[in-house]
Design goal:
The N terminus is likely disordered. Strands 1-8-9-10-11-18-15-14-13 form a nine-stranded antiparallel sheet. α1 packs across α7 and α4 packs antiparallel against α5. The longest helix is centred in the first third of the chain and has 24 residues. The chain is of the alpha+beta class. The termini are far apart. Helix content is about 25%, strand content about 35%.
Length: about 325
């Protein structure tokens, strides 16, 4: 009986691998978002900018967007648990921004309700509730995590056959273009199973010379590079007790050379296949009243080490299996006549 269970487990594993391989091998055009130009790299409040035109990835705590810029790829990294300008380490009333209301003020709101005064006009229940009951204190805001720029020094005006795609069924983003008789490709994904962002750059008929740089909009951050890795540490400002965070990027260049620079960047030269892994965490822990305590530094190191140990292909396979299993749960097809 145990032998049957082992065989069944082996069969299911083999079947799962075959299905994932099939998903990787074929692209269903119906699920493909396709563009023939990079995203805008501006953040203007009016008109189309990066946020409106870059392509999003991620199905968990960690998320990313990629621009597909020819000369410089811009990855915007997000951590859903990173907030700023809010309160922690205080009592419930202080953290929630609860307003202390006088009995007569509450009575005015109740009387307006009894009198049927609804709407937004002066003296209505809603207007009085906003005036006397709602919190006037800022409750914080979602905070950006980091930006990653990967520069190629390629001239956008000399590029042909450009394409930028996102496969909604597999969660794989791709960029492809021709330049000087060579073909350059990029692939991106944000893995929920392994909590990393991964990228792969390849060149056919030429060599890749890249510069990888990371920054954050939070003040006082530091970036250091050594060997194949760069580490960014910083703090997101809070009312008290700032949130600490960390990001690690690991670069592998195969047949090329990886060099850590004194300014915190990493350069790659003479490569045809470059693989990049990113992990990032902050000290947030969902435990009242401090809402902190995660070993974010240790988690960064363990996650990036695990990703490097598995390798790009294994990470990609697990990612595609995870996303496609969700996307394949239900399909709605409409036939037009």
């Amino acid at each position: 009986m145990k032998g049957c269970n082992v065989n069944m487990i082996g069969f299911k594993t083999l079947l799962g691998l075959c299905l994932v391989s099939a998903a990787l091998a074929s692209v269903d055009e119906r699920y493909l978002l396709k563009y023939d130009e990079p995203a805008k790299d501006s953040f203007n409040k009016k008109g189309l900018g990066y946020i409106q035109t870059a392509l999003p990835m991620g199905n968990g705590r960690l998320g990313a967007m990629f621009s597909g810029g020819v000369e410089t790829e811009h990855l915007l990294i997000n951590d859903i648990t990173l907030w700023m300008n809010t309160k922690r380490g205080m009592d419930e009333a202080a953290q929630s921004g609860t307003r202390f209301v006088k009995p007569e003020e509450f009575g005015m709101v109740r009387q307006a309700y009894r009198d049927g005064k609804y709407g937004t006009k002066d003296g209505s229940m809603e207007a009085l509730a906003t005036q006397y009951l709602s919190s006037t204190e800022p409750l914080g805001n979602y905070a950006p995590f980091t930006d990653v720029e990967i520069s190629t020094d390629h001239d956008p005006s000399a590029v042909s056959d450009y394409s930028r795609t996102l496969d909604a069924r597999t969660g794989l983003g791709r960029v492809r273009y021709s330049l000087g008789g060579a073909t350059f490709t990029r692939e991106f994904f944000c893995s929920f199973p392994h909590d990393v962002v991964a990228a792969r750059y390849t060149a056919d008929g030429a060599a890749l010379n890249l510069t990888v740089k990371t920054t954050t909009k939070h003040k006082g951050a530091q970036v250091q590079a050594a060997g194949n890795r760069m580490v960014l540490t910083g703090k997101a400002a809070m009312v008290q007790d700032d949130v600490e965070f960390m990001q690690v990027i690991h670069v592998e260049a195969g047949d090329g050379t990886v060099t850590a620079q004194k300014d915190g960047t990493i350069t790659v030269s003479g490569a045809t296949d470059v693989r990049i892994y990113l992990a990032g965490y902050n000290d947030y822990q969902p435990v009242y009243p401090d809402f902190k305590g995660r070993d974010y530094r240790g988690d960064c190191e363990k996650t990036i080490d695990a990703a490097c140990g598995l390798g790009y292909d294994a990470l990609k396979q697990a990612h595609v299996a995870d996303v496609s299993a969700l996307m394949d749960r239900c399909r709605l097809e409409l036939a037009f006549q």
